């Protein structure tokens, strides 16, 4: 399902207005004139022992220059070639969401040139991604204090820091967001050959001023595509187009840009991970797994060589989570379990309210593998968690276990408690991210309860169809594949309850979501069994077996008992 945004035509218009300037100037990016450079003592940000939950000492830790992480020539006013190289490395890491490495690179550039305005600007942008607005403002003020060493274009970047920070401090204020967009577009028009300004413009057309290329609108696509007209090898433009086309549900186009990003930044973990997103969604799960394993190897190599805990890298959790889901897709449960257990045990130094995201995968996997006795104690412990999100998921999981045992009253009681905790979670949430990730779980449980209860089945069917429509609308990688397993569960429950017509309907929805998934054929075999069609049932089982060639022996034994 394609997503449309009411403001999407504004950046398209901007791109159209500026086409003439690109055509007429035909200018290549050139280094800006060197400005007077005076050495001043390096002064670190004072009084901040942690930035966004990450030790400041780690963000300042020395780092080496590394090849092929997505660097792109970005002329600045520094006279130090090495500082320039570190700055470009920092920007590559910033665009690739490797936030610790970006910070280290910017700090290294500043150690070499303390008046390096664009490195301070880079730090300010980075701190917003770490959700530390105070640190972001301090870095912007430092950049402004050195503005006499900056070119007019760099001064424009400094202006944008304060305009964005003002909008970030009041995320629901549409006027401030529009003011920021206007400011970005005005500076883009003054300096139309600066890809970084265009990237900021594309980011600004996301829902919130904190946009970093992940929530792009249709209009953002016009801007990123425009960058590729004059900078066709710009890694960040390809990166943000992957997210944009994923949001539109166009996985084939996203895959094209994913391949380009991986080629341009083969040593950047997120570049390989992004390519894996759409390999997975277009049926090439083997190669998706290979890319995510390489992503994992790059990240673990960094943690070992640079001596820091993976809990400080949000991306590690994301990658192993998606890799585990891909293993589950192939029936490789032992490999999946190892990763979701690691995820379960990782602490979150940033945004403790999202702890549930780490913890839910492990017990969920156990439940899907009929290991309820192992999952139940974990779920009970989660109901006692420090954050409302953990408690919501704990009660949700207990409800799912009760439902499997056909204990409807207990399932309903767990659902009610989960919904109560969800209200508390929404009261405490800083952004809508928490609500978006928590909301679907109690709704899913409620829909399944309705399906099981003959007295409420009509309403249950209506609710579960709404849930199916919502699941089909998931385009992000984790939600997309999690939705796949939820759609599979709905079809399985329908066959178990002998709701043949709805089971067929549900399996069609499952196949529309992912026509390549072996589980679809497995459900089709069970429907054929219900109809007494043994030939079709056996054919579909064989297709499922073929898709699960790499599955664990235990998984195959559970799904294909010898007497079948």
TrEMBL record:
The keyword Coiled coil applies. InterPro entries: TPR-like_helical_dom_sf (IPR011990), TPR_rpt (IPR019734). Keywords: Coiled coil, TPR repeat. SMART domains: TPR. It comes from the Bacteria. TPR repeats lie at residues 83-116. Residues 401-428 form a coiled coil. This is Tetratricopeptide repeat protein. It comes from Larkinella rosea.
């Amino acid at each position: 399902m394609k997503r449309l945004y009411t403001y999407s035509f504004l950046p398209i218009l901007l791109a159209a207005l500026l086409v003439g300037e690109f055509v007429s100037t035909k200018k290549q990016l050139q280094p800006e004139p060197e400005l007077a450079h005076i050495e001043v003592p390096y002064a670190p940000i004072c009084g901040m022992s942690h930035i966004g939950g990450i030790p400041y000492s780690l963000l300042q830790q020395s780092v080496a220059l590394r090849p092929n992480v997505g660097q792109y020539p970005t002329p600045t006013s520094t006279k130090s070639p090495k500082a320039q190289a570190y700055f470009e490395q920092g920007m590559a890491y910033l665009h690739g969401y490797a936030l610790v490495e970006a910070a280290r690179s910017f700090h290294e550039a500043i150690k070499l040139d303390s008046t390096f305005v664009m490195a301070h600007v880079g730090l300010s942008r980075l701190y917003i991604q770490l959700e530390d607005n105070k640190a972001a403002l301090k870095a912007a003020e430092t950049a402004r204090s050195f503005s006499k060493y900056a070119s007019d274009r760099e001064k424009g970047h400094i202006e944008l820091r304060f305009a964005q920070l003002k909008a970030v401090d009041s995320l629901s204020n549409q006027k401030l967001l529009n003011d920021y967009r206007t400011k970005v577009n005005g500076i883009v028009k003054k300096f139309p050959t600066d890809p970084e300004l265009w990237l900021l413009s594309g980011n600004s057309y996301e829902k919130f001023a904190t946009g970093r290329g992940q929530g792009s609108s249709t209009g953002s696509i016009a801007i990123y595509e425009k960058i590729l007209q004059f900078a066709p090898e710009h890694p960040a433009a390809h990166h943000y187009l992957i997210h944009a086309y994923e949001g539109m549900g166009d996985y084939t186009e996203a895959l094209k840009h994913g391949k380009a990003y991986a080629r341009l930044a083969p040593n950047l973990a997120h570049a390989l991970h992004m390519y894996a997103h759409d390999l997975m969604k277009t049926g090439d799960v083997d190669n998706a797994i290979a890319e995510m394993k390489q992503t994992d190897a790059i990240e673990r190599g960094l943690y070992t060589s640079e001596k820091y805990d993976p809990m400080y890298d949000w991306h590690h959790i994301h990658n192993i989570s998606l890799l585990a889901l891909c293993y589950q897709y192939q029936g490789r449960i032992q490999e999946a379990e190892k990763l979701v257990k690691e995820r379960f045990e990782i602490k979150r130094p940033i945004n403790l309210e999202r702890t549930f995201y780490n913890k839910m995968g492990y017990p969920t996997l156990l439940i899907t593998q009929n290991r309820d006795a192992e999952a139940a104690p974990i779920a009970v412990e989660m109901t006692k968690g420090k954050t409302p999100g953990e408690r919501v998921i704990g009660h949700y999981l207990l409800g799912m276990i009760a439902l499997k045992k056909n204990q409807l009253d207990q399932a309903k009681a767990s659902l009610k408690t989960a919904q109560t905790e969800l209200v508390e979670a929404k009261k405490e949430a800083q952004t809508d991210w928490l609500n978006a990730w928590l909301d679907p779980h109690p709704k899913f449980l409620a829909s399944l309860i309705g399906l099981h209860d003959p007295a409420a089945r009509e309403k249950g069917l209506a609710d579960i169809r709404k849930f199916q429509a919502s699941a089909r609308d998931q385009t992000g990688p984790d939600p997309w594949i999690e939705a796949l397993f939820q759609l599979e569960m709905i079809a399985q429950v329908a066959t178990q309850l002998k709701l043949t017509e709805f089971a067929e309907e549900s399996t069609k929805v499952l196949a529309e979501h992912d026509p390549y998934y072996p589980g679809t054929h497995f459900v089709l075999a069970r429907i054929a069994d219900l109809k007494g069609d043994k030939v079709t049932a056996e054919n579909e089982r064989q297709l499922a077996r073929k898709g699960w060639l790499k599955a664990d022996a235990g998984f195959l034994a559970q799904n294909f008992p010898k007497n079948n």
